[in-house]
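does this look right to u?? guanosine-5'-diphosphate version
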Amino acid sequence: MNRTLLIIKPDVTERNLVGHVVSRLERARFRIVAMRLTRLSETDARRFYAVHEGKPFLSDLVRFMASGPCVPMVVEKENAVEDIRTLIGATDPAKAACGTVRNEIGRDIQMNSVHASDSDANAVKEIAFFFPEL
Ligand code: GDP
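got this back:
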């Protein structure tokens, strides 16, 4: 078993699709370990995406992530980090494989509905960012 962090982004909470994403995760046999609804400040969003400092899209991304509520969650499964990246699909919904969450409900390369940690090391850091008690 391992754990990873998923964030349901503000474009999903805005469209009342949180339950849909949770259902996709549960049907794919991820167990929910922790979950909460929160609204990031721009300062927190910038801290979370510090790895993208210097990229041209960072300011827009930070504004988007702080634009409404999001739902960070910790999920558990064998091979969780890799399997969740497969389930959500490529960053750009237009390029994400058919049947992936981003292909299904993502709006564009920025408002792509969900974030998931991309490595075990980042999963540990990102889980601690939102759920220091775990
Ligand atoms: P991820 O790991 O698939 O989420 O992709 P990245 O770590 O490369 O990017 C982080 C987030 O930044 C993505 O999920 C998008 O929300 C946003 N993003 C990535 N690339 C672009 C881009 O070229 N333009 C814009 N506007 N946003 C982007």
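The beta strands are 2-8, 31-35, 71-77, 114-116. idk if thats expected tbh
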